[in-house]
Amino acid sequence: MKTISVNRFASRGMLLLTLLSLTSFVAGQYRVGRGGLAGWQHIGNAHVDGRADHDRIDVGGGTFTALQMGVTGGAIGFERIVVHFRNGGDEVLPVGTVVRSGGRTPPIPLRGGAREIRNVEIWYQKGAYNEGKPRVDLFGRR
């Protein structure tokens, strides 16, 4: 009859507990639904049709302090973002990051605090091995 050492049993239990805790944390942070992460509002989306692309997402107004992009359907390399404000001003946000499917860019704060956004232009390219049309979702934090 085989015996299992108490240390081995305890290590497996701790590993399982750690994995369950991480799963619970991630599920709480990335809630499924229109709101995404707590405090973030989904304000539009676009699909990357070719290898490199440029899209404009109309926000239709709304006051936000920061933006964030989420990616599904493949990796997207973000080059830059131009935010057009309701008052006629623009802000160029250099991003220069690749986001894998299921991920998000870090929060990108807007200068001057809460600003009313008219639309957002995004320049990006899909990853070399993507199949289909990756989707970018734009989120704003109030």
Short description:
With 142 residues, the chain is α+β, with helices and mostly antiparallel strands. The chain has one helix and nine strands, in the order H-E-E-E-E-E-E-E-E-E. The N and C termini lie far apart (63 Å).
List keywords for this structure.
alpha+beta, 142 residues, 2 domains, Jelly Rolls, 9 strands, 1 helix
Describe this structure as you would to a colleague.
The protein has one helix and nine strands, in the order αβββββββββ. The chain has 142 residues and is α+β, with helices and mostly antiparallel strands. It has two domains: 30 residues; 108 residues, Sandwich (Jelly Rolls). The strands form two sheets. Strands 2, 3, 5, 6 and 8 form a five-stranded antiparallel β-sheet that branches. A four-stranded antiparallel β-sheet has the order 1-9-4-7, with no helix packed on it. About 15% of the residues have low confidence.
State the separation between the terminal residues, measured CA to CA. Answer: 63 Å
Helix content: 10-25%
Share of residues in strands: over 45%
Mean pLDDT: 77
| Radius of gyration of CA atoms, rounded to a whole number | 20 Å
Structural class: alpha+beta
Spell out the CATH superfamily of the largest domain: C-terminal carbohydrate-binding module
Look at the structure and give the CATH class of the largest domain.
Mainly Beta
What is the helix tally?
1
Q: Label the overall shape.
A: globular
What's the order of the H and E elements?
HEEEEEEEEE
User: How many domains in all?
Assistant: 2
Q: Tell me the CATH topology of the largest domain.
A: Jelly Rolls
Low-confidence stretches: 15-36
What would you call the quaternary organization? single chain
- Major β-sheet profile: 5 strands, antiparallel
Number of strands: 9
Can you name the CATH architecture of the largest domain?
Sandwich
